[in-house]
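Re: beginner question about structure tokens

> Can someone show what the tokenized structure looks like for a real chain? I only ever see the sequence side.

Sure, here's an example I had lying around. Input first:
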Amino acid sequence: MMLLPSLSQAFEIQGHRGARGLLPENTLPSFSAAVEAGVHGIEVDLLMTKDGEIVIHHDFFLNPRLCQYRDGSPIQNIALIKESTLSELKELDCGCRLHPKFPKQHLIPGTPIPTLQELLNALSSESHPNAKMIRLNLEIKADPATPHYIPEPALIVKKIADIVCEKGFANRVYYSSFDLALLAEMRRRDIDCILGLILDEESLIAQGIDPLDWLPTVISIAHSMQATIISPHYDLMTKEVVERLHQAGLRAIPWTINQQSICQHLIEMGADGVITDYPIDMLAFVNRS
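And the corresponding structure tokens:
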């Protein structure tokens, strides 16, 4: 079993969807940029297609704001990823449309939606030394309020775990999700895997947890499934939250932190790391601090 850094080790920088602030999200060029910058980890969003392939994509539906067909035509049928085949998704170009929140992105026309297998292959063949060390936060996408947006947990969990094992990455990943059923299924499948709970106010409410008094319940859930990482939205972070998570033997890695002032505040709180759209800049900031 891989042991991630202890509570006393270095502050961890994870690239959110790669280096989303600079390159199209969840694409191989975006992940490569984070690797070459020397960040500690990358956060990767996973969904399953109609034909059982694991693709790296954040949205449950095809997103016409970020992707178009390779011939330049717009997406007309806004289908669920789980109702699309891999070959259909490979017809999309997800590197040619500027994300409205990230005007400094460098577009790379012709960039397809990658599969998890393609990412692991790329890391295995990459010459940069960090490619051999970087850890992966594999977020299994799910929304507790809309469970029908993804296949049955057992199906997607088995496929992801099989790919990770086959490619020899079992000691370099942890699995995270908003969905407790997915995490519980992963624990049943792999007793030694590392699990992380993602949460925000909306997901807490959807799962019947009081957002004003969430910490005891989340700690209890984490212990019940032997999860070791909690990733709250940064709005939920306080010094007391960090202290209580540490007392419970849990690491606190919030999302998504793009302002250095907030990162500094989290460092002072004692957080264990951040997930950021600007991992290159944030790593440089932390190294200077």
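Each token stands for a local structural state, so reading them left to right follows the chain. Residues 12-287 form a domain with the TIM Barrel fold (CATH 3.20.20.190).
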